[in-house]
Amino acid sequence: QAQLVESGGGLVEPGGSPNLSCAASGFLFGPFTMSWHRQPPGTARELVASINPDGDQPNYVDYAKGRFTIARDNTKNILYLRTDDLKPEDTGVYYCRCPFKAMWGQGTQVTVSS
């Protein structure tokens, strides 16, 4: 069964830099664009970044530029989201997605609080 499983979230202090991972299983995600999204409390899910199959063309929404880095390892079937200098407003559930397959992971909670 194809699935996406995120990990790496948790409670971090402001300024923290957790690294998130998304492991794909049951299919090879190399041919597909992949993306990270997040859902802050009480708001709609929003795009953070996407990356092309080769991994050399990342795209970021404005708030993510300079503080988030999306990357992928097609040999391991893993998508990454490296973060830097997180703020309380970055709190939310972070999801990875394979848009072509309309597939979402279950999400990993990131809470930024002192």
Short description:
With 114 residues, the chain is mainly β.
How would you explain this protein's 3D organization?
- The structure is a single chain.
- With 114 residues, the protein is an all-beta fold.
- The chain has no helices and eleven strands.
- Strands 2, 4, 5, 6, 9, 10 and 11 form a seven-stranded mixed beta sheet that branches.
- β9 and β10 form a beta hairpin.
Q: What's the main sheet like? A: 7 strands, mixed
Shape: globular
User: Strand portion, in percent?
Assistant: over 45%
> Could you spell the SSE succession in H and E letters?
EEEEEEEEEEE
Give helix % range.
under 10%
Structural class: mainly beta
Oligomeric state of the chains? single chain
Total DSSP E strands: 11
The end-to-end span amounts to 39 Å
Unreliable segments (pLDDT under 50, ≥5 consecutive)? none
Radius of gyration: 13 Å
- Alpha plus pi helix count: 0
Q: What is the arithmetic mean of pLDDT? A: 96
